[in-house]
């Protein structure tokens, strides 16, 4: 979502202010830093990066801080780093060309409704489009700062989504990534009329777009994975067989304290339904270790889910207390060393699973959508189930979906021969 926000910022600046991108920091008239704040590390990184930019930038170049850290720190950023010219929150992207001209402007209103705003066109990769389907988040997970920084959830009217995808297909994209904090909660609230009012029907509707061959989405919430949605996921040939099912914890008591709204049993049940309806699908997940009160037994429940589901991809984090969240006020913190050991055990076991998954691909054939040239006469793309695949080839394969027979497998990527 941050990447798409950056594309929107670039589009506004180039359409309305004639800015062009430069890879050279010393040449820039404007430096924008789009920030995350989901954990503490990116926030401290912001201030160290600002120091680097301050030294290297042209004397009159402006610096703007955007995104989630901007949303929750607001004018504190300018107080701490007066070199910053303006601050613009994750929910105020469309205001970029206004704040740009106001010294020390701070636009961080999380009630601001951008759900029908017509952003200009800019895409980093013309073969793949990212399209927002909702803004904000209503979930209120107790560890998470996102509802504070992105405001309440509003879905984007289905016709706007449809038209945006159509436009990207007309200009060469065969794949779309639908974006939202809880994509399968689509339709919870609209601020304008919408023909389609739920996620499963939205998937069906956009599948009718001719020339669109691949649909991905991130992130769905396990709670809203009803049977109808999973059946559509499994049976619709345009939907890529890769699904993110963020677990967070395998312990019912931790899940309750996180306010996730599901149990371990529900989670396992959803994953086994995915595995039986779509055996070729890969399942990825997010796990937090060291949430307040997490005991050794709680952590074993998480390890148990890992053993049972054997996630093909894992994003794992040590719990990081965030301001304005309920969990930050909880006592019984887990010591850092304990959290670190749990994280290591989780990641080590997952690495073994991943190695087995990747080695098992040898000799198989994946359909790969090639979208990026690589050095040494190679080209890269993603398989339907989301794996990174390299093959020999050049321009002639860009924008092509081709079968690739896998001859080499490592932990992070597959390699093979494109059969065309
Ligand atoms: N709604 C998005 C959330 C994006 S944040 C989604 O469902 O994917 C991505 C991940 O960061 C979360 O799933 C969670 O695992 C992790 N995360 C969020 N807040 C965190 C915190 N305070 N400490 C550690 N990890 C956190």
Give a concise summary.
Helices cover 34% and strands 21% of the residues. With 420 residues, the chain is an alpha/beta fold.
Describe this protein with a few key phrases.
4 domains; binds S-adenosyl-L-homocysteine; 5-stranded mixed β-barrel; 420 residues; 4-stranded parallel sheet; Transcription Regulator spoIIAA
Structural summary, described in words:
With 420 residues, the protein is of the alpha/beta class. The protein folds into four domains: 106 residues, Rossmann fold; 118 residues, Transcription Regulator spoIIAA (2-Layer Sandwich); 118 residues, 2-Layer Sandwich (Transcription Regulator spoIIAA); 54 residues, Nucleic acid-binding proteins (OB fold (Dihydrolipoamide Acetyltransferase, E2P)). It has 13 helices and 17 strands. The strands form five sheets. Strands 13-14-15-17-16 form a five-stranded mixed beta barrel. Helix 8 runs parallel beside helix 9. It is globular and about 55 Å long. The two termini are 34 Å apart. The model has no long low-confidence stretch (mean pLDDT 97). S-adenosyl-L-homocysteine binds next to strand 11.
């Amino acid at each position: 979502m941050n990447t798409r926000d950056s594309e929107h910022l670039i589009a506004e600046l180039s359409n309305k202010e004639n800015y062009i991108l430069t890879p050279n920091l010393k040449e820039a008239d404007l430096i924008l830093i789009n920030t995350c704040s989901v954990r503490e590390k990116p926030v401290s990184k912001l201030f160290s990066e600002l120091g680097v930019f301050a030294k290297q930038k042209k004397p009159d170049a402006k610096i703007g801080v955007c995104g989630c850290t901007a949303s929750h720190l607001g004018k504190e950023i300018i107080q701490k780093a007066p070199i910053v010219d303006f601050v613009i929150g994750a929910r105020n992207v469309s205001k970029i060309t206004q704040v740009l001209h106001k010294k020390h402007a701070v636009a961080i209103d999380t009630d601001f409704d951008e759900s029908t705003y017509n952003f200009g066109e800019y895409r980093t990769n013309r073969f793949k489009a990212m399209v927002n389907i909702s803004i904000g988040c209503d979930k209120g997970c107790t560890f998470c700062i996102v509802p504070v920084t992105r405001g309440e959830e509003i879905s984007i009217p289905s016709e706007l989504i449809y038209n945006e995808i159509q436009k990207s297909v007309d200009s060469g994209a065969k794949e779309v990534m639908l974006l939202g904090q809880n994509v399968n909660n689509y339709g919870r609230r609209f601020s304008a009329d919408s023909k389609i009012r739920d996620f499963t029907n939205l998937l069906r509707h956009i599948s009718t777009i001719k020339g669109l061959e691949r649909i991905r989405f991130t992130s769905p919430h396990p709670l809203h994975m009803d049977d109808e949605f999973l059946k559509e996921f499994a049976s619709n040939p345009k939907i890529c067989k890769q699904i993110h099912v963020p677990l967070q914890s395998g312990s019912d008591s931790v899940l309750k304290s996180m306010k996730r709204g599901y149990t371990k049993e529900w989670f396992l049940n959803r994953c086994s339904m995915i595995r039986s309806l779509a055996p070729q699908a890969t399942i990825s997940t997010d796990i937090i270790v060291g949430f307040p009160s997490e005991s050794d037994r709680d952590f074993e429940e998480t390890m148990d889910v890992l053993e049972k589901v054997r996630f093909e991809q894992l994003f794992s984090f040590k719990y990081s207390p965030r301001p304005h969240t309920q969990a930050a006020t909880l006592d019984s913190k887990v010591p850092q060393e304990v959290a670190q050991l749990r994280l290591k055990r989780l990641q080590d076991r997952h690495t073994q699973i991943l190695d087995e998954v990747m080695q098992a691909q040898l000799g198989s054939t994946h359909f790969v959508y090639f979208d990026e040239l690589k050095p040494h006469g190679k080209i890269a793309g993603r398989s339907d189930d989301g794996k990174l695949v390299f093959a020999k080839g050049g321009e002639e394969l860009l924008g092509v979906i081709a079968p690739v027979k896998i001859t080499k497998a490592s932990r992070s990527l597959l390699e093979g021969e494109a059969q065309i």
